[in-house]
Amino acid sequence: MNKLEYRVDSKIIKQLSLFLMLHGIKDFQLEFHSNNKNVQFIIKAKSIKQEIVDFMVEKIGRKRELEIEIYGWELMGDTDSKNELDILGSLIDKIEVKKLDDYIELTLTRVYRYNE
Prior knowledge:
The chain has about 120 residues and is of the alpha+beta class. It has one domain: 2-Layer Sandwich (Heat Shock Protein 90). The chain is built from four helices and four strands; from the N terminus they run αββαααββ. The radius of gyration is 14 Å and the shape is globular. The mean pLDDT is about 85.
């Protein structure tokens, strides 16, 4: 993987963590799994309200945009506005939600575009 991909991945991790904490999620795990083709961010959260999950799916589930990927990831910062996941949604290819016994699991998949 190249340096750009790692930088984008680390910004995604930061933004996801910040979003969850700002919305009162105090019990979550964030896993990172990477190979040469893609990366997955897996969030496992207890006591997360359905409206927060729905908001995440709406914002992150939109179509990935190359223009944002090239330049917009640099705009991702510490924000708590209504648009906090808009840029993040432009960097993710797919989001899946699973409701398990006492927690919700969200899997975000990002396909690497710039393999070396």
